[in-house]
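hi! just following up on the protien thing from before. the input was this:
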Amino acid sequence: MSDKVLTDERRTARKVYACDATAWFHSYGMGRHDLTPEQQVMFDAAEADKGRILPGQVYHYQRAVYDGRMQTWRARLDMQSVCIAHGLFDD
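and the predicted 3d structure came back as:
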């Protein structure tokens, strides 16, 4: 079954959410040592927030059907860019 993206936008958080990009980064077994100094600053900020998106932060929101199931993706923009830079997402 093919994937279908229903919503793909930037939003401003009104409450706390888990950052899926931070979790994705860790699931690949990557750490601070894999990052450039600029990326380390972004990673440290995400870690200081305990891998969460906090109220007032702009984040990437995507709602899609994947393998026949509805999925929601919420990611801090900084950690999403780190994951993209390291090729962690399938295109």
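The mean pLDDT is 93.
Residues 4-85 form one domain.
cheers
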